[in-house]
Amino acid sequence: MLGVLVRHRRKQDEIIRKIPQVLRESRILDSLLVAKSLNLFLDVCEEYQTSIPKKIFQDVCDFVFQQAVPRDTSVQQLKMPQKVMEKFIHQGWNQGTQKTTAERDVQEGESSSCDLSPSEHQQLCKDHRNILMDAFGHLICCCPADALDFLQTQMKDDTERIRVGFLRNLNMIVSSDEPCGTRNKKRPIVEAVKCLLDDHREGVRKAILCFIKELLRSQNVEGCAVWEMVAYVFKQFTVPIGQPHGKSPVANRKEKEKEERVQELCIDVLEHLNTSAEGMSKALWPKLLFFVVPAVYTPTLTPLCRCLKELAFIRQDDSTLFLGSCKGVCLPSAQGLVARLLVLASNPTQRGSWALQLLHALHGNIHTAITKLWAKQVPFLWESFQISSPTESTEIQRKKWEQTLLQFLRRTLETIDDNTWTQNLSRELESQMASYAQQSAERNFLYKSLGVSLTCCVDPIFVQRRMQHLVENANYMEALEREKVIKILSFSAMGHLDLTLATLHAFGAGMGLKIKISSIVSRYKDYQQGRRGHVHQMLMLAYGKVALHAPKELLLPRVEADIMKRVLYYYRKSCQVLGVSIENKDANLKLALVQSTTDICQAIHETHNFQNFELTSRKELLDILLDFIKEEPLDSLNTPLRSKAITALAFLSKMKPCLTMEEIRSLLDLSIKSLFSLPPLEQLKEKRETARDAVDIELLYACSMDALGKLMKSIVEEHPTSELMDEMFQLIDPWFTQTEGSREKALQASFQTLTAFQENFHLPDGENFQQFGSLVAFLAPYTCDNSIRCRQWAAQCIICLMHIQAQSSLTAKEEEEMSSACNELRGDVHDDLFRASCRMAKVVSAHFPPTQALDFIEAILEDLVSGNKMCAAAAGRWLLTILQDSGDTMEAQVSEILDIFYSRLPTLKEDDLRQVLVEAVSAVAHYHLDTVFSSLFRRRLPMDSETGELWRSLGKDPPLAVLILHKLAARVAQPSSLGTPLSSDSDETVEFADEEPLKATCAIYEVLSVLQTEEVIQELFPELFCALLWQVSKTLEQKMPICEGRRRLFLREQQLSEGNPCRLSVASLKALVLKLICDSSVAEIGEVNTWTLLGDARTHQDGVSLLTRCLFQNRLLHHKIIQNALPWMNSGSEKLRLTGTAFFTEAIRDPMLGERERLKSILPLLIERAGDQHPGIRRMAIKGLGNVLLVAPEKVKEQKKTIVAIFLGALYDGIVVLEGLRALALVFPHLKKRDVGFLFKDISMKTFTYLSDDDVDIREAALHLCGILAGLTKFGSKTFFAEQVRKSLVPLLIHQWDPSPKVSEACRTAFLQSVRFLAKGKLRMHIEELYRTTNLGLPNLHMHICKQLVNIHPEMRRELLKKTEVYFLSRWEEIRIRALELSGVILENMRLTELDETSRQLLLISLEMLEVSPSYSVQQAAADVAAYIIKKWGGEVPRTRHPPTRRSSRAKPAPIWVQPSRALEVASVEDLYE
């Protein structure tokens, strides 16, 4: 409301007078709401420029600041962070000074000061405080003078918290940049703050700096005493950090920390300085240049240079500024600025960047002559400054940058061409030395700059005076001082070589004169203190650096006499005391000589005519350096002498005359031994006490190896030949197997050597690097070493070799692949390491020269047997990869390669390593199968384990195995002799197996043992089966072959083995069959071993039959097998005819062969073979013919009688009678009467003749056939057969107790079938019933049946008794007993007249002989029969009769044939007989 009314001019005064009353009455209201209202009111007042009386102005200001800065606010609260300070708690005025409103009204009236503070404490938020300060800003605009008075009055309060509070609140006003009125607001405030600049309390200083920061970062500072504010910032930065006496270290440290915080705040203020603010450039330019040169302001130079650079570009339209004078400020000179900024720019940091940019901005103010030069050169410098190479170290980049700046400085001075200006620059550089730390990079660069400035001086007197002053006033006991002299003099020599050398000569001569004049004791003391040594050290180093920086066209005439000889002179002098030479143990002097030698040789090498220059002191220097290296300890690395001496050798080796190969070998050998004998880096670091020492030793270690690399590189540059490479690797080679540390060094040295060759050795087009294969094999295994550093060095070596070999043909993709694999070798997982190594091997194989295959293989096999398992495994993988990828190009060397593999394989015991060689042979076989095949076949029998392992390796690859097996099968089946006969002394012929087929047979076994693909085996089965069965047949009863090429005199002793070649053939055949048949019956059929039968000449045919039957059952009888095996039956070899016949005996069961067309070709052969001379063939033919009648009876109708006749003929052949009996028993049930005809009687008669044969199988077959014949009544020969049965009744009865169970069973069956021809009707039924149901024991049952039969046929009794007596002589005890019992039965049923005296006596004699039989049972039975004869027929016992050998106390039982029958009761024999 008041804001609306104040717009009326007439009411302004009245309204203004009521403001204090309104503020006083508003205490009960919200203070924030009141502040907002007041702000709006004062905003209107500012807009209408309303005049406010001073007293009312004071009241309003009090109202504002009583809330913003309460009087009881503590200093600690004011020092709180800004976020906390924004929440002031309204505390009101001090209670001691407060008065009530009534008292003030009485004392001062309405216009007196009012208590306008809020009625209660309130916490001010940020918005509240901003509103109050906005209101105060409007007051300032309305009444600037009153505002200044008010602020100055308030600032007079010395209370720190009050001043800090006011300053922090005033920050809000100066930081606001409103479009209008800003200048009117800031100027009174700044003027008021100037009153506080002398306050040195920390809180006030910080508050002022914060105020200045807000002021300088604002957009308008016109008329705000900016220079005074900025000068205050720099003044606060340089406030010395006091060290008051009597304070504790803790207090001093806290004081220091306080000042450091103030300095940080000062830098922060400068960093926020807004150079584009209105009035800023006018206030600060160029006055700010004053702070650039003084050393105390160095930390502020980063923001300072930035501000000056921006100000310079803002003021670039001004006229040229003449530095050195400015109103109120003493500006630095142009030389001072150049010296300062150029040195700062040498450090590639942010400060150096801004210094370089400021130098560019000031190019028009330095000198008029360089305006164009700097306009072009400084931007180029800025680009170089910003570019950083990722492949270069920071130190190298820094050196390059310094060199660029020095060239820039020299060109600048040459362009200025003002000797006075240049001299002043030199003086400035000298004066600014103290501005930098002793060991700082800036100071080091300053020395170089000073030397360049002296170089550009054309006044020799000035230059000589400065040099003399420098060398005479230096403190040579300090290393930094010596370095200063060396650097300045060396860079001065670029323009004043003669003057510099003269100064050094004069100084050195003066040192000698001083020593001569001094007393002996003084000289000795001087030597002990080391000053003379330090001077000599400085002189030697100075000569070296002077040579390095001297003009190259002036160096060679002076280097020998004026430089090198002086260096050696001072070194010799340093080794003398009182004119006596002593051993120099000062490492610094040695280092000085080494460094000087290095610098001089490097300088000579950089000249244009160095090739024609001969250094006469080279031999002496070489000896000195080699002595230095020899003297270095081999167990520690304490100084850089070793590495620097090797570096010096590298440069010295380039000097003329050239080194001989012997000298090169000596240099390298000594250097390598000195470095490689050192302990590993980790052990060297562990001996150090501090982390800094560990870092130093690591750097020293790296420098030593780099020095060796430089030596190798320099030697290679002079002698880039293959012979030198061989020599170098011969020196390195022994260290690969020492320790892991030496191996790492050896690999690093190998990389350095190869890198040098890569840079200097160029192959003619089309040629290969001679050592590529051997070096790849030598280094590649270490790509999987246990040490990650070894792996990396080895990989880098491989990459270098690839660049040497492939050169331009190496593609970018291959390089990327190699680099990627090298990076992956940093891992720890073994599989990943092997995979990365193999990736490198694949790239190498693409460029591998096949002519170096032997070198590669021989070298890598050495690694294969190394003790390092990881390296050995990697060697194996590299070998396989190269062979797999490049094996096709090695055809000319395959035989030699295989010979190497064969010679190495027996020496390897580890399975993994053996497997590598085996797989290598397999890899070669993929490309050169014929060669590998022939090579393996050249191996002698018996096949050793290595040869077998190689064959197995070929079988693991199915496609390769197919080709191999085809070739092997062809070798087995190739035409050859059927054995090599050899006669012995006993006229026995020994047959030896052919070696080639036997080798192939053994190889087939090895290949099949690992071949797991059933489809491949099925495909090859017919061919392999026939070949192996052929081989089994051929090698029956043969001996192992004899080695060829030896004298026949010793043939017996030369037999390769006493083994059985047939056993080897059977083993291969078994391996083949079992691959397709998983049935155990193949190995065991019943109790018969198929493979044992197959390998035995006596049972070979049985084994073939069993095997063929198994193939038939498993459907493996392929038509190719039949086709290949059919000619065997007509072979000229009995063994092969036997095999073929036995095969077709079972193969004929195959329905496929049962076809008429096939039978036409097979049946005639079987019939023909039935008459073969070989009994085994006849047996198999008979068996086969029997199978033919069973399988295809309808298709051989016309040949049935012929076949039966053949069977009958077999019964007359004692060798094949068994097969004839069995065949007849097999086919008779399937024959018809017309098929047998008249042959039935012959068959029957011949069959009964074998019932008592000694051969068990023949007896069993004859009895079995007898039973079958008895059952076949369809042939109409019952009477004939009954007669045959009657004649054979005794064997039919006796053999029912045959020792062979199968014979006994067959006899019982035959007896039951035959008894019907003797007994009829009820008797036959009775006998059959007895066999089925009786409980009698078998002997009793038989005796009972015998009684019945004897009673039925009384005419047979005498004949039966005679036939029975024949069995008394049987070799089987049971048969003899049953014969005795049967004779007892017959005797029991005989009448007295049926047995005459002669027969009786003969019978008794036979019985008497049986009574002395070893068997008690036989004795007893014989005694019983004899006793019965005597009892029944009477007579005397023969005198020769002996009692039984064993008596029993028990009562003797009656013989079994006279015991009461417990059989089923029957009426009589006659009742049973019809």
Please give the number of β-strands. 6
In terms of quaternary structure, the protein is single chain
Report Rg. 63 Å
Number of helices: 73
Spans of at least 5 consecutive residues with low confidence:
1-6, 72-122, 179-183, 514-520, 982-986, 1045-1057, 1334-1339, 1439-1452, 1456-1474
Biggest pleated sheet: 2 strands, antiparallel
Work out the strand percent: under 5%
Overview of the molecule:
65% of the residues lie in helices and 1% in strands. The chain has 1474 residues and is mainly alpha-helical. The strands form three sheets. It has a two-stranded antiparallel ribbon. It has a two-stranded antiparallel ribbon with strand order 3-4.
Q: Any descriptors?
A:
mainly alpha; disordered C terminus; two-stranded antiparallel ribbon; 1474 residues; disordered N terminus
Task: Chart the SSEs and their pairings.
Blueprint: H1 2-6, H2 12-17, H3 19-25, H4 31-47, H5 54-68, H6 75-78, H7 82-85, H8 101-108, H9 126-142, H10 144-155, H11 160-175, H12 182-193, H13 202-216, H14 226-237, H15 249-271, H16 280-284, H17 301-314, H18 334-345, H19 350-361, H20 363-366, H21 371-386, H22 394-416, H23 419-431, H24 441-456, H25 460-473, H26 479-492, H27 497-517, H28 520-529, H29 531-549, H30 552-574, E1 576-577, E2 580-581, H31 587-605, H32 618-631, H33 641-652, H34 661-676, H35 681-686, H36 691-718, H37 722-732, H38 740-760, H39 772-779, H40 788-806, H41 812-824, H42 830-846, H43 853-864, H44 869-886, H45 894-904, H46 911-927, H47 929-937, H48 945-955, H49 958-973, E3 980-983, E4 989-992, H50 995-1010, H51 1014-1034, H52 1061-1076, E5 1084-1085, E6 1088-1089, H53 1090-1095, H54 1100-1113, H55 1119-1125, H56 1134-1147, H57 1156-1169, H58 1175-1191, H59 1200-1211, H60 1217-1227, H61 1233-1236, H62 1239-1248, H63 1256-1271, H64 1278-1287, H65 1289-1294, H66 1301-1314, H67 1322-1333, H68 1338-1352, H69 1357-1366, H70 1373-1389, H71 1397-1410, H72 1416-1433, H73 1469-1472
Antiparallel strand pairs: 1-2, 3-4, 5-6
Helix pairs in contact: 4-9, 5-9, 9-10, 9-11, 10-12, 11-12, 11-13, 13-14, 13-15, 14-15, 17-19, 18-19, 18-23, 19-21, 21-22, 22-24, 23-24, 24-26, 25-27, 26-29, 27-29, 29-30, 29-31, 30-31, 31-33, 32-33, 33-36, 34-36, 34-37, 36-38, 37-38, 38-40, 39-40, 39-43, 40-41, 41-42, 42-44, 43-44, 43-45, 44-46, ...
